[in-house]
Design a protein that fits this description.
It is a single chain. This protein has about 140 residues and is an alpha+beta fold. It has one domain (about 1-140): Nucleoside Triphosphate Pyrophosphohydrolase (Alpha-Beta Complex), CATH 3.90.79.10. It has three helices and seven strands; from the N terminus they run E-E-E-E-H-E-E-E-H-H. Strands 1, 2, 3, 4, 5, 6 and 7 form a seven-stranded mixed beta sheet that branches. Helix 2 (about 110-115) runs antiparallel to helix 3 (about 120-140). The longest helix has 20 residues, at about 120-140. It starts with a strand and ends in a 5-residue tail after the last helix.
């Protein structure tokens, strides 16, 4: 099995979260593979910027998720492990990378949870939103 270590972001702006619709019509969070010994935080910043065009700051860590799939192109199973960061956008202005994604934007939390394809991502957004609200209330940032 091929192991891929990735990182990504859960980006909030007020009471909304940013999600993307990929080429398989799945609603997902921005993320990417960590390459050449890069740090997870740097990869998350780079991929979120590349995929969304958003300007943001990192507020906190959010945890990790993993999933497995069979790669037709590689002809072998793949395990993706993703390190997540909670981010706060400076505005709602975004520019989706249309080469990778069909659609995307900020959605209210409930609507985003209804749209997000994978239950793991739904749980991650739900827990991250609670942590985001708590940190905002306390005006803290730990990263």
């Amino acid at each position: 099995m091929l192991l891929r270590i990735c990182s990504g972001g859960i980006i909030f702006y007020n009471d909304k979260v940013f999600i993307l619709k990929n080429e398989k019509n799945e609603w997902v969070l921005p993320k990417g593979k960590i390459r050449n010994g890069d740090l997870a935080i740097e990869t998350a910043k780079l991929r979120v910027k590349e995929e969304t065009g958003l300007s943001f700051k990192i507020i906190s860590t959010a945890g990790e998720t993993s999933y497995e799939f069979y790669s037709l192109s590689r002809q072998k199973p793949v395990c993706n492990e993703i390190i997540w960061f909670i981010m706060e956008a400076d505005s709602e202005e975004y520019n989706i990378n249309n080469n990778e994604f069909k659609d995307g934007g900020f959605f209210g939390i409930e609507e985003a949870l209804d749209r997000i394809t994978y239950s793991q991502d739904k749980s991650l957004v739900n827990l991250s939103y609670k942590k985001y609200l708590k940190l905002k209330k306390e005006d803290l940032a730990i990263v």
